[in-house]
Amino acid sequence: EAGELGLAAVPGREAAFRQGLAEAVQYARAVGCHRIHVMAGRVPLGADRAAVAGEMETTFIENLRYAADLLAQENMIGLVEPINNRITDPRYYLNTPHQAAAILEKVGQPNLKLQLDLFHCQIMDGNLSRNLDTYFPLIGHIQIAQVPGRHEPDSPGELNFPYIFELLESLGYTGYVGCEYAPKGDTLEGLGWLRSYWESRGLQHGGNSKAAK
Fold this sequence. Notes:
Elements: H1 14-31, E1 35-37, H2 49-73, E2 77-80, H3 97-107, E3 112-117, H4 118-124, H5 128-135, E4 139-144, H6 161-171, E5 177-179, H7 192-200
Parallel strand pairs: 1-2, 2-3, 3-4, 4-5
Pfam families: AP_endonuc_2
GO molecular function, one term: hydroxypyruvate isomerase activity
GO biological process, one term: glyoxylate metabolic process
């Protein structure tokens, strides 16, 4: 409600973070969700990012270790997502896959993974093929949106999603791909890109192979 985008990396807010995490676990348990996005939060208003970076990283690591222990008891996975600070939110703390991977390595818990949103990744770093290959062992969830408009994958933009989807298949990705975009019109009509992709791959709607039928 305060527009904080999480608290996990915000110094002095540890108690609020733990309370929020406990509530999130209750909701996730109720709906059968096994993955929770542990949002880092924003650089405090008026603070210099470089000046507070070390303290925020320490706070983030400590809170992620706490989260990993709690989530392990529930057989859940925690996800951290880099969000670009060039367009979406200039104050968000976690901005690149490289930064996220370094923090996950320091935390060292197997039930914490990378939530890689290709919209944010393209804006911050590009080089998606290499980044997907490099960070694939850490990836726990993928999200997509066209760049720069953040609409459907087949809307005009920079990313070749049929290529990206086939790359994910070749890497062995079997998880969900979250459609985190703003539909240009009707949501169901906007899913025409998915039906077209299935047909191009010889699949029926729903992802079932025609050959298997």
